[in-house]
């Protein structure tokens, strides 16, 4: 697509040509009191000088519509051609906004005090920009221009006034403060009680996890507190996250909980070998989809927790990492069931595990059911399929977590590094 300045320039020339055509060829108009028989020279009505406006102004002022004088019978073809060109440029500009540019009223974080650069923190500026957009009752875009913005805990709080989703257009890089005391809650960038959200723009969310992974003691401490997730969504509805890069989260890259109708598309998630850096963890949520995304993580690419219903994972590439997991489940009392999981058209390369279901022993009476694994390719996967009902414990207690027999696996291609591709661990010896 042509640069916006070029489109504006072409449109200006087009509209100017229309104005020139009408100004040059318009017949003189006589004043009402004028007698054409007695006057030798016609009296010309005074017209204001033609005014040229750019395509954005034209679209905003006229809605992209130009009305012609229907009485003009000649040279209309040339005029129509020019107007079609101008209208097309207006349409291109508007469509370009939908495809990755600001739409509606723009709330630029720079206008609220954000300072690009690796030293100065911009947390409050981002919160102020969000509040202004959230309080706006029409279409709004929060613009984060190119540059590096350092942020501590940032909470985008709803509900918001407009029924139109707020667009967060991330063109720059968000970089986390490396002081874990700055994150008292579960998330670094949190969306809370937001109904209607679009997060896009091709930018990057950098959790700087390599600076804090040394503080994660969950392998040795059962009561550990997980480090903050890069994106934490709770009570979010009607949201779409697309064309975003996430790197080196402190904890989970994305944690979705108590949410409904959330779609993830065209994500790239990358981390070094950090502990508990799941690409995405979904729990207590309904109708969540992940598609056409790439996960290279230090833990599960995607993990499904308790209470996750109607989750679809489609055309996802995973590896390195620990694969795609259901669980762990049953660690806490009275956990919610997992129902309706579809994993299809996915590729796992060089992962520790492929498809895994993991539950704790002696868990409450819960159930994982309605799961479909279809059209899966695994290459150099150490443990392609695992059902582990003794996860995380050496207990000899009985097992209550039920894995429904209605679950299905279809067309799974496995190229494993080990002799046995399927491992089922149930009652311990």
Q: What does this protein structure show overall?
A:
By secondary structure, the chain is an alpha/beta fold. The chain has 2 domains: 4-98, no CATH class; 105-425, Single-stranded right-handed beta-helix, Pectin lyase-like (Pectate Lyase C-like, 3 Solenoid), CATH 2.160.20.10. It is 15% helix and 38% strand. It is built from 4 helices and 28 strands. Helix 2 (55-62) packs across helix 3 (76-98). The model is unreliable at 36-47, 62-99 and 396-401 (pLDDT under 50).
Distance between the termini: 65 Å
CA-based gyration radius: 29 Å
Number of domains: 2
CATH domain class name of the largest domain: Mainly Beta
Q: What is the level-2 CATH architecture name of the largest domain?
A: 3 Solenoid
Strand content: 35-45%
Q: Give the class from helix and strand content and strand pairing.
A: alpha/beta
Roughly what is the average pLDDT, rounded to an integer?
A: 80
User: Approximately how much helix is present in the residues?
Assistant: 10-25%
- Large-scale geometry: globular
Instruction: Give a short account of the largest sheet.
Output: 18 strands, parallel
| Number of alpha- plus pi-helical segments | 4
């Amino acid at each position: 697509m042509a640069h916006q300045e070029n489109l504006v320039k072409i449109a200006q020339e087009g509209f100017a040509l229309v104005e020139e055509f009408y100004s040059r060829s318009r017949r003189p108009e006589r004043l009402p009191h004028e007698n054409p028989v007695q006057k030798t020279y016609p009296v010309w009505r005074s017209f204001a000088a033609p005014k040229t406006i750019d395509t954005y102004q034209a679209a905003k002022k006229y809605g992209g519509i130009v009305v012609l004088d229907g009485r003009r019978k000649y040279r209309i073809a040339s005029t129509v051609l020019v107007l079609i060109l101008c209208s097309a440029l207006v349409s291109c500009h508007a469509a370009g906004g939908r495809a990755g540019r600001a739409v509606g009223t723009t709330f630029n974080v720079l206008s609220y005090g954000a300072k690009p650069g690796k030293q100065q923190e911009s947390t409050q500026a981002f919160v102020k920009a969000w509040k202004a957009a959230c309080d706006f009752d029409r279409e709004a875009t929060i613009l984060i221009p190119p540059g590096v913005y350092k942020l501590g805990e940032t909470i985008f709080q709803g509900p918001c006034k407009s029924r139109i989703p707020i667009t967060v257009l991330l063109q720059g890089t968000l970089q986390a403060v490396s002081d874990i005391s700055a994150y008292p809650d579960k998330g670094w960038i949190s969306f809370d009680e937001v109904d209607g959200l679009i997060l896009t723009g091709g930018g990057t969310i950098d959790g700087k996890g390599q600076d804090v992974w040394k503080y994660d003691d969950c392998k040795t401490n059962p009561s550990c507190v997980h480090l903050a997730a890069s994106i934490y969504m709770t009570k979010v509805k009607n949201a779409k996250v697309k064309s975003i890069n996430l790197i080196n989260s402190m904890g989970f890259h994305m944690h979705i909980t108590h949410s409904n109708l959330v779609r993830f598309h065209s994500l790239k998630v990358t981390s070094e070998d950090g502990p508990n850096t799941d690409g995405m963890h979904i729990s207590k949520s309904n109708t969540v989809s992940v598609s056409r995304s790439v996960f290279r993580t230090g833990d599960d690419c995607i993990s499904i927790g308790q209470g996750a219903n109607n989750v679809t994972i489609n055309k996802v590439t995973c590896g390195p990492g620990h694969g795609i997991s259901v669980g762990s489940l049953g660690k806490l009392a009275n956990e919610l069931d997992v129902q309706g999981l579809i994993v299809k058209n996915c590729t796992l390369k060089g992962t520790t595990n492929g498809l895994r279901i993991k539950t704790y022993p002696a868990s409450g009476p819960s159930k994982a059911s309605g799961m479909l694994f279809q059209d899966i390719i695994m290459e150099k996967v150490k443990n392609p399929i695992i059902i582990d009902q003794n996860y995380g414990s050496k207990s000899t207690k009985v097992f209550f977590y039920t894995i429904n027999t209605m679950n299905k696996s279809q067309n799974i291609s496995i190229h494993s590094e080990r002799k046995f591709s399927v491992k089922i661990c149930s009652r311990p010896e």
